[in-house]
Amino acid sequence: MVSRPGGRTARTRTAVAAALQEELLEVGYAGTTIERIARRAGVAKTTLYRRWGSVGQLVVDLFHEAAAVEIPVADTGSLEGDLRALARSAVTLLLHPRSRAVFDIVVGEAVHDEAARAALTDFFAGRVANAAPIVARAVARGEIPANTDAAEVIRQLGAPYYARLYITGDPIGEADADRAAAVTAMAARAGLLA
Amino acid sequence: MVSRPGGRTARTRTAVAAALQEELLEVGYAGTTIERIARRAGVAKTTLYRRWGSVGQLVVDLFHEAAAVEIPVADTGSLEGDLRALARSAVTLLLHPRSRAVFDIVVGEAVHDEAARAALTDFFAGRVANAAPIVARAVARGEIPANTDAAEVIRQLGAPYYARLYITGDPIGEADADRAAAVTAMAARAGLLA
């Protein structure tokens, strides 16, 4: 499929993505259908069926795109400060109903659907690539060992709030972001994430 | 429902649980039906429909029961040693195809089903209650601050390997259990889990 930036395909995608998020918030995943999304987006439902086939594939495809987005990472002068800023952004995103609705579906589908699993894995590979400069700067400052694994640092940072949301079912907030940053920075300094 | 230990109800449950796990491994969640479980367990399908209604509710109910099981926790003489033993048991369980199949379903359902969410939350409340003596012993030895939160310690311990499995999609193994124990023990000693 050829997609020109700002062209008709891009406009369709944007309209469909917005309609999908509104439907998910209004009627939930079980109630969301291709027909309803098409009507709300003002797009022919045959276009949606041809391109995505199902609501699940549509969610996964749009989520996949999110993996490629670069998010500016703060340069606070310390590893813990940088990780705290990153964790707070992630928690804020997960507390936002629209992004949370999409995330919930992808996590739920990923246990039995390969496309959803791949979208989630790619999303985190994107997050790691995006945040790798944080680790490189801390190494350059001599704060942490040179053989520190950036992927391990980012995984360790995110694990507590993702596990609270999707495994233990506990609430998340800024305190969880700050604690995750403190624990991860300490573990990295001690060489446990090498 | 009246259930006598060793009685007909208990035998039915055991047979149904075994049949369910075998079906999940053979044909996956999508292929598992009440009819197939009933045939394999040698139980009338009307009994299963009356008691559980659907495969999802059956999985959730059996998982709920697992929360109440007490698992002996090792007393190695150090917080890190005790946490390492606990984390290794958890990783071994998650690597076992039968328990993993059930866990996958409950995690997947929990994002949109209240009964599955409650089963998962109760499971971890059970794990915390079960492991609380580890934290109490470490406090008594003067290894960690008296105001350390046992629930926070157990959540911090489990977060990395659950997040690898269900969020980032990375493999898990003994090294992940050992790293989680080292990071959690260090964080607890520093008073970050109070």
From TrEMBL, chains A, B:
Transmembrane regions: none
Residue ranges of domain HTH tetR-type in the record: 10-70
PROSITE patterns the UniProt entry points to: HTH_TETR_2
Keywords, comma-separated and alphabetical: DNA-binding, Transcription, Transcription regulation
SUPFAM superfamilies, alphabetized: Homeodomain-like, Tetracyclin repressor-like, C-terminal domain
DNA-binding region(s), chain positions: 33-52
Record's protein name: TetR/AcrR family transcriptional regulator
Species the sequence originates in: Paractinoplanes rhizophilus
